[in-house]
Amino acid sequence: MATPLRYALIFLLWAMVAVIYAPLIPAALTLISPALSLTHWQTLFADPQLPQALLATLVSTTIAAVGALLIALLVIVALWPGPKWQRMCARLPWLLAIPHVAFATSALLLFADGGLLYDYFPYFTPPMDRFGIGLGLTLAVKESAFLLWILAAVLSEKRLLQQVIVLDSLGYSRWQCLNWLLLPSVAPALAMAMLAIVAWSLSVVDVAIILGPGNPPTLAVISWQWLTQGDADQQTKGALASLLLMLLLAAYVLLGYLLWRSWLRTIPRVDGVRKPATPLLPGITLASFLPLTGVLCVVLLAILADQSTINSEALINSLTMGLTATFIALILILAWLEWGSSRRHFWLWLPILLPALPLVAGQYTLALWLNLDGSWTAVVWGHLLWVMPWILFILQPAWQRIDLRLILIAQTLGWSRAKIFFYVKCPLMLRPALIAFAVGFSVSIAQYMPTLWLGAGRFPTLTTEAVALSSGGSNGILAGPGFMATAITAYYFCPDRVSRKMGRLCQTRTPLMLCVKNVSLRLPESRLLKNVNFTVSKGDIVTLMGPSGCGKSTLFSWMIGALAGQFSCTGELWLNEQRIDMLPTAQRQIGILFQDALLFDQFSVGQNLLLALPAALKGVARRDAVNDALERAGLGGMFHQDPATLSGRSASARCSASRSSRSAKSVATG
């Protein structure tokens, strides 16, 4: 591509992105100008609705954030890693595909006064929910699926899977694995996801209107009502209430940071204490419950929906606006990843990390200046501010995983940057782009405030219809828009498409043992090994050699009790005249030494070794045992050394410190 043309396209790209993100500036002005007057603040705090609205907002947001995090962690502890975790990840789109408004509508039809639950059980009466508890619980269930979906990509990393095997073999419980290994590893992704959940829960309007509380409503709903009134004083109160939401978000961020720092001071704990086995039933139950809620939501809406009352104009508007906004955003983000700034683009994430109300107010202000309010173009432009960061959220990790060697080969062939983009990168990004398109379409369908405000009420959509009908009418009329929104979103968010990219967890685990007798290993369609026998005496070394895929690593997996579910194995494993192939992994006392050292980066060399020691060894004896193991590995005086600089010998010392008489090495042979 000629240099002048390339610069012109880059300028055009920056201009289009700037137009979409321009509302950030008037949004800031909308918040700052009224905040400079003390009288305006006094008027806001004198409003009798504010204390109860603020309390309901805090309660619902806290329940949503803490509940989503707790559900996600319980599921991870119970299922990860393993086939059940893979199946649960494949079923997450059953819940992810349902728009928030449709999910809230199904909850209203089921649990509200006059809902199906109380029709069948008339002796129960729904409690008066003045604090938004029902709203918080509904958001917690919905957002836990999003949180699991984000963490699934991080947890599919092979190194994490193998490090968990190390902790399992040392006898530590699943909660200890979560505390020492998983949380530090997923912290960046977890922090971003939790920030998005808190910001959205604070400022959600459509779901809060459907589920309540009603009088007074949450702070976001009150702010929305004030901003849409013609009275300038009321609009000022709405702007200050939006700023108050921003301050609440900052308070939540500070609280989360302080809790994180406090938690970091509790690790590492290398006293050797092995906690009791973690109860898995709560996590297993929740893992089954999450996809089931999505299925029940669809079934309930489908049964109750009166399709003759569905507004065809709302359906057409939802489809055309959603497809247009998503297509534009997908093209822009792909172009941005190639030609945009590779650094300092944090501002692109702001729409999903900040409360939505002030941003919508900024959009409306800009639309008034440009005389675009009440137009179809303005509504699509408003949707782009939220669709673009979500598509970037999906595509950026996949873009960063593109093998640079492919780019280098194309460059050696004399290909231009544009040709490499279209013929190398775009085909590699096809599947992530399909997932991003599904997510972006779902985000566009769910937009309530931009559609209603920028469209001046002239463009009904399925979301605006669902919110409008939630205040009354028959169940059939109420269920109709929610069902159609779910149906068209599920078409693009088809589970069998998305599940292919949820991450295939590596199940390869690799240790070794002392006496193997008549071991045969099979897959459902083929035999890998037949009647394998060998004996290893103390100090001996046995090497298993063979081509890739012949069953070497799988045999090691069977030896430590970590055989993947698709394999079957017969035979016996003996240690010191005791058969151990029926024992759990931790009781086999096998030291594991992977080709990758798999040390825990957050611990020093000495602390990695302390983890391997039994809790019965106390005080100075623990330190002496570690120093002895370090001396044998040629690492004397390296207790406080960073393990990254001494990984191989540190892993050998850890095997030695665990006092295992056996160890196994996994080395790739091709």
UniProtKB/TrEMBL annotation:
It is found in: Cell inner membrane. Its main location: membrane. One of its GO terms (molecular function) is ATP hydrolysis activity. CDD domains: TM_PBP2 (cd06261). Residues 54-255 form the ABC transmembrane type-1 domain. It is a multi-pass membrane protein. The keyword Transport applies. InterPro entries: ABC_transporter-like_ATP-bd, MetI-like, MetI-like_sf, P-loop_NTPase. GO terms for cellular component: plasma membrane. This is ABC transporter permease. One of its GO terms (biological process) is transmembrane transport. The chain crosses the membrane at residues 7-33, 53-80, 92-111, 131-156, 177-202, 239-260, 280-303, 315-337, 346-370, 376-395, 433-456, 476-494. Keywords: Cell inner membrane, Cell membrane, Membrane, Transmembrane, Transmembrane helix, Transport. The keyword Hydrolase does not apply. Gene3D superfamilies: MetI-like (1.10.3720.10), P-loop containing nucleotide triphosphate hydrolases (3.40.50.300). The lineage of its organism: Bacteria, Pseudomonadati, Pseudomonadota, Gammaproteobacteria, Enterobacterales. Residues 650-670 are annotated as: Disordered.
